[in-house]
Structures are given as structure tokens and as C-alpha cells.
TrEMBL record:
Active site: 116 (pros-phosphohistidine intermediate)
GO CC, alphabetical: cytoplasm
EC number per UniProt: 2.7.4.6
Catalytic activity: a 2'-deoxyribonucleoside 5'-diphosphate + ATP = a 2'-deoxyribonucleoside 5'-triphosphate + ADP; a ribonucleoside 5'-diphosphate + ATP = a ribonucleoside 5'-triphosphate + ADP
Key words of the record: ATP-binding, Cytoplasm, Kinase, Magnesium, Metal-binding, Nucleotide metabolism, Nucleotide-binding, Phosphoprotein, Transferase
Organism this protein belongs to: Candidatus Hakubella thermalkaliphila
Pfam families: NDK
Cofactor: Mg(2+)
InterPro entries: NDK-like_dom, NDK-like_dom_sf, Nucleoside_diP_kinase, Nucleoside_diP_kinase_AS
Record-given protein name: Nucleoside diphosphate kinase
Matching SMART domains: NDK
């Protein structure tokens, strides 16, 4: 099933010069980058993005981290794009991420874990609408 998903290359990856390598992996997998931009997230947008974690003790540090530097935000599409990207990323904790995954190869700690990818088609739709303010046309599945 054709899907769209949102990917954020986080500030730690941008600072370490890993954006190109991550983009290369996405393209080599055969996924399409439909749109991409580099930006410095404002706190308000970061809080909306992470609103599901608002009542958790790590919310503030999560928002502080994602707003600490530039990020690369992408809309990526392809067959089963959400699942494929999540598999490519590896588990949230880089210590548990297998070699060959983005977090397994480049991640160091759980919070600064290189990359974000939408966890469902519904989340992708919400997240894309937060970061890209135009109609995409077509469906998310």
C-alpha cells in the first residue's frame, strides 16, 4: 500500500554531518522524497509535534533537544513507507538498535537518537500537516 510518512533528521545528526548519509539510505531503499526543508523548530511547533508526550516527565527535555539546532524535515513516500522507514530507523534506544539501522549505526543515546519517523499513517498525516502548510493531494495510504 502506497503511503506518505514524515521524517525528521534531528539536531544531533545535522550537527554531526549525517544528513546526507541518511538521505542517501532513504533514496537507496527506493523511497521517494516528495518534499524536504531544513529549519530550526520553534518551541510552539515542537510542543505540537510531541503533544502526545505532554504529561510525561521527559517532555520538556524532548522539546529542548529538538529545538536545540537545525533539523531536516522530509515527506517520504512509497509502498508501506511508514513500516519501511521505522525498520530502517531501528529501535528508539540506539543501544538496542541492530547494526545496519540508522540508529544502530549512528545513535548514541535514547533522547538524541538521530531520526524521527511517523509511527502510523494517521500520525504521518497529522505530522505532515504541522510541518508542511500546503495541500499534498492524494491519500496518505
Amino acid at each position: 500500500m502506497w503511503q506518505k510518512t514524515l521524517i525528521i533528521i534531528k539536531p544531533d545528526a545535522v550537527r554531526r554531518g549525517l544528513s546526507g548519509e541518511i538521505i542517501k539510505r532513504i533514496e537507496a531503499k527506493g523511497l521517494n522524497i516528495e518534499d524536504m526543508k531544513m529549519m530550526h523548530l520553534k518551541r510552539e511547533l515542537a510542543e505540537k509535534h510531541y503533544e502526545e508526550h505532554k504529561d510525561k516527565p521527559f517532555f520538556e527535555s524532548l522539546v529542548d533537544f529538538i529545538t536545540s539546532g537545525k533539523v531536516v524535515v522530509m515527506i517520504v513516500s512509497g509502498p508501506e513507507a511508514v513500516k519501511i522507514v521505522r525498520t530502517m530507523m531501528g529501535p528508539t534506544n540506539p543501544a538496542e538498535a541492530p547494526p545496519g539501522t540508522i540508529r544502530g549505526d549512528f545513535g548514541i543515546e535514547t533522547q538524541e537518537n538521530i531520526i524521527h519517523g511517523s509511527d502510523s499513517v494517521k500520525s504521518a498525516e497529522r505530522e505532515i500537516s504541522l510541518f508542511f502548510d500546503y495541500a499534498l493531494g492524494g491519500s496518505f495510504q
